[in-house]
TrEMBL record:
A Pfam family recorded for this sequence: DHHC
GO molecular function annotations of the record: protein-cysteine S-palmitoyltransferase activity
Gene name of the record: ZDHHC16
InterPro entries: Palmitoyltrfase_DHHC, PFA4/ZDH16/20/ERF2-like
Taxon lineage: Eukaryota, Metazoa, Chordata, Craniata, Vertebrata
Protein name: Palmitoyltransferase
Origin species: Phascolarctos cinereus (Koala)
Length: 377
């Protein structure tokens, strides 16, 4: 197809170039000169219609991958409920195994103080996991008002065509702008924004603690259960050999009941699932902890990196306007104003609102001075 097009367009382009060359000469007829001028004028009009000062390689790549983005957005939008149900089912299975398999073993082997410690810590961790996950999936992340307001806006959203405050970004899955958007989490079927960012991070943190606790606490049980499963496999192989030879002169090994088999398999399943989630979710939690310490979101991290590189080439230093220092960033994020809040708002379930309204970003009272820097929009 390309070769046919080149064969057809090649002579036409050659004729137009000859007309352009003749148009520069005053000896050419006026008809050819006007035709050449009209051709040049048409090219300028066409380029002006296609010109975009914001165009570049990034824009071209985004346009090329637009069908892929559309497919991913629709898959995540429709399967969000499935992901939430999967989280609930997996968490419930671990809790059920802990009550039905682990708890009876603990009651027969551990001392009373150790049993009390495990009982208090495990239920405290479970309550925090359930509370923060429920709040994360049911709390709206926060949306900018679509009516006319006097609030200062940074730009206009190209998708919503509405004013967009600072730190606000458009979510293609929710199809609307989100205040202080971090990302869209499919495991929550919700955007992570200004009003539920703390719930999302707290859920990740306490879920990681719970998985680490289950992995280390059930390590000895896992080894015994894994060894028992290997014995079961060996027993099954011996039974097959006996059935084939119809002779068996040795004493058969003790058989395992159905309950013992299910207990051993459940303990192995618990350890592998908790260890995998602890590694994956732990890495995600550490990454978000680093971003919170810097006063950034996941989107702002990429924007600030490009802005830092641009200013470095000009010999300037980039400073994040929302970075108030590591400790102050955590206080703003967790909503901690007094020392008592570390207990009542961090270590205990709390539904307090975050600092600010998500549209204006004045520094908190305990920050003396906001740094002069470039806004991350």
């Amino acid at each position: 197809m390309r070769s046919r097009r080149s064969l057809l367009l090649g002579p036409a382009r050659l004729c137009f170039r000859l007309l352009l060359l003749l148009g520069y000469r005053r000896r050419c007829p006026p008809l050819l000169r006007n035709l050449a001028l009209r051709w040049r004028y048409g090219k300028v009009c066409l380029r002006s219609l296609l010109y975009n000062s914001f165009g570049g390689s990034d824009t071209a790549i985004d346009s090329a991958f637009e069908p892929v983005y559309w497919l991913v957005d629709n898959v995540i939008r429709w399967f969000g409920v499935v992901f939430v149900a999967l989280v609930i089912v997996l968490t419930s299975s671990i809790v059920a195994i802990a009550y039905l398999c682990v708890l009876p073993l603990i009651l027969h082997t551990y001392s009373v103080p150790r049993i009390c410690w495990h009982f208090v810590y495990s239920h405290w961790n479970l309550i925090l996991i359930v509370f923060h996950y429920y709040q994360a999936i049911t709390t709206p992340p926060g949306y900018p008002p679509q009516a006319k307001t006097d609030l200062a806006t940074v730009s206009i959203c190209k998708k919503c065509i509405y004013p967009k405050p600072a730190r606000t970004h458009h979510c293609s899955i929710c199809n609307r702008c989100v205040l202080k958007m971090d990302h869209h989490c499919p495991w929550m079927n919700n955007c992570v924004g200004h009003y539920n960012h703390r719930y999302f991070f707290s859920f990740c943190f306490f879920m990681t603690l719970g998985c680490v606790y289950c992995s280390f606490g059930s390590w000895d049980m896992f080894r015994e259960a894994y060894a028992a499963l290997e014995k079961m496999k060996q027993l099954d192989r011996n039974k097959l050999q006996v059935a084939a030879n119809q002779t068996y002169h040795q004493t058969p090994p003790p058989a395992f009941s159905f309950r013992e088999r299910m207990t051993h398999k459940s303990l192995v399943y618990l350890w592998f699932l908790c260890s995998s989630v602890a590694l994956a979710l732990g890495a995600l939690t550490v990454w978000h902890a680093v971003l919170i310490s810097r006063g950034e979101t996941s989107i702002e991290r990429h924007i600030n990196r490009k802005e830092r590189h641009r200013l470095t080439l000009k010999g300037k230093v980039f400073r994040n306007p929302y970075n108030y220092g590591c400790l102050n960033n955590w206080k703003v994020f967790l909503g901690v104003n007094t020392r008592r809040h570390w207990l009542t708002r961090v270590l205990l379930p709390s539904s307090h609102l975050p600092y600010g309204n998500g549209m204006t970003w004045d520094p908190p009272p305990y920050v003396t001075r906001a740094p002069d820097s470039v806004l991350a929009v």
